[in-house]
């Protein structure tokens, strides 16, 4: 793998030098490809267009990110920003690269979570849109446009991850292919109309199975905190190391979102039926609500409290999008029509 990693570093150097003027663009793309964006941006946008597609997005995002965590624990995988220093292969000729605030993620690098979750989630979106366009127009050309957009998204997210030294190219490719497969499989198994007990059991099962795997690997002598140590050692700035990039943060996010999805369907089975104008208003209000929920500062010590509050934060996400905001909009718009 040493030759693969080395070539990846030189590719990142070339990419940074040739596209330095597009630095802001790549940083925006990598933020849009963050798994968190699937929960906070793609899910509400999709839900208010198609309820089933929205539920599918949340379901696929949670399962694919959980699987990405498991793959990372099992496959390890270096990250460029720390491997450059750890490998000691560039003592005589240091690559001319620099880090960014999004570079210093603390989990292992393989496969890329950004690429994997983006590929899985956006497959749900573009396949639904493609099917809709074909059913309305019967045009293969028009219905294939969403898939072209899908390829552009994956390529852009992949390049952005290599550009900021978060991943090697082969990790991005592996994540994209795995996400494509998962999106295709999981989108046909959306848990609509399932009881709350299903979601509670599923969320608890994911949490416990990940913890058991973690403990089991530690019992085998595998220190799963190795990547956190290297990230702290080689990150350019200490403040770029954030607790919400630690693997357990993604685990609590996924379990919280799934439990929240079950609660939302329990409180309001089938969701609120709204015309297009109230849907657009609900989307705008939901987006503002999720923005402020995401920005809520959480105490980083003790870490157990941080993870609990992080879990609660993502339990609230489906409640805001599926129950609270559309219910409030329905109440006021219905009352106005009645008056």
From TrEMBL:
Q: How does it sit in the membrane?
A: Multi-pass membrane protein
Q: Which residues bind substrate?
A: 79, 161
Name the active site residues.
114, 167
Q: Does the keyword Transcription apply?
A: no
GO MF annotations for this entry? Answer: glucose-6-phosphatase activity
Spans traversing the lipid bilayer: 56-76, 115-135, 147-166, 172-190, 197-217, 305-329
GO CC field = endoplasmic reticulum membrane
Tell me the Gene Ontology biological-process terms attached to this UniProt entry.
gluconeogenesis; glucose 6-phosphate metabolic process
Cell compartment(s), UniProt: Endoplasmic reticulum membrane
Q: Which Gene3D superfamilies match?
A: Phosphatidic acid phosphatase type 2/haloperoxidase
Keywords attached to this Swiss-Prot or TrEMBL record, sorted alphabetically, are:
Endoplasmic reticulum, Gluconeogenesis, Hydrolase, Membrane, Transmembrane, Transmembrane helix
Q: In which pathway does it act?
A: Carbohydrate biosynthesis; gluconeogenesis
Q: What is its EC number?
A: 3.1.3.9
Determine the domain of life of the protein's source. Eukaryota
All copies of the Phosphatidic acid phosphatase type 2/haloperoxidase domain together span 53-187
Would I find Membrane among this entry's keywords? yes
Q: Which PANTHER family match?
A: GLUCOSE-6-PHOSPHATASE, GLUCOSE-6-PHOSPHATASE 3
The family line of this record is: Belongs to the glucose-6-phosphatase family.
- Listed name of the protein: Glucose-6-phosphatase
């Amino acid at each position: 793998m040493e030759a693969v990693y080395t070539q990846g570093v030189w590719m990142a150097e070339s990419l940074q030098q040739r596209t330095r003027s597009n630095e802001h663009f790549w940083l925006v793309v990598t933020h849009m490809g963050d798994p968190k964006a699937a929960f906070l941006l793609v899910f509400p946008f999709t839900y208010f267009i198609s309820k089933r597609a929205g539920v599918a997005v949340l379901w696929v995002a949670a399962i694919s990110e959980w699987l990405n965590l498991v793959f990372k624990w099992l496959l390890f995988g270096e990250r460029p920003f720390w491997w450059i220093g750890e490998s000691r292969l560039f003592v005589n000729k240091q690559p001319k690269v620099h880090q960014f605030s999004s570079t210093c993620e603390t989990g292992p690098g393989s496969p890329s979570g950004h690429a994997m979750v983006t590929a899985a989630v956006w497959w749900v979106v573009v396949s639904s849109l493609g099917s809709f366009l074909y059913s309305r127009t019967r045009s293969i050309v028009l219905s294939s446009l969403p898939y072209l957009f899908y390829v552009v998204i994956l390529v852009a997210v992949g390049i952005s991850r290599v550009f900021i030294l978060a991943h090697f190219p082969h990790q991005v490719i592996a994540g994209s292919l795995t996400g494509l497969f998962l999106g295709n499989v999981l989108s046909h198994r959306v848990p609509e109309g399932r009881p709350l007990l299903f979601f509670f059991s599923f969320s608890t099962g994911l949490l416990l199975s990940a913890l058991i795997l973690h403990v089991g690997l530690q019992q085998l002598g595998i220190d799963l905190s190795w990547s956190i140590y290297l990230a702290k050692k080689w990150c350019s700035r200490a403040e770029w190391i954030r607790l919400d990039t630690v693997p357990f943060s993604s685990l609590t996010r996924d379990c919280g979102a799934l439990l929240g999805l079950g609660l939302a369907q329990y409180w309001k089975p089938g969701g609120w039926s709204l015309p297009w104008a109230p849907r657009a208003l609900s989307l705008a209000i939901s987006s503002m609500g999720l923005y402020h929920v995401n920005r809520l500062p959480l105490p980083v010590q003790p870490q157990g409290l941080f993870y609990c509050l992080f879990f609660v934060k993502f339990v609230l996400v489906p409640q805001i999008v599926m129950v609270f905001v559309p219910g409030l909009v329905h109440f006021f718009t219905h009352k106005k029509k009645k008056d």
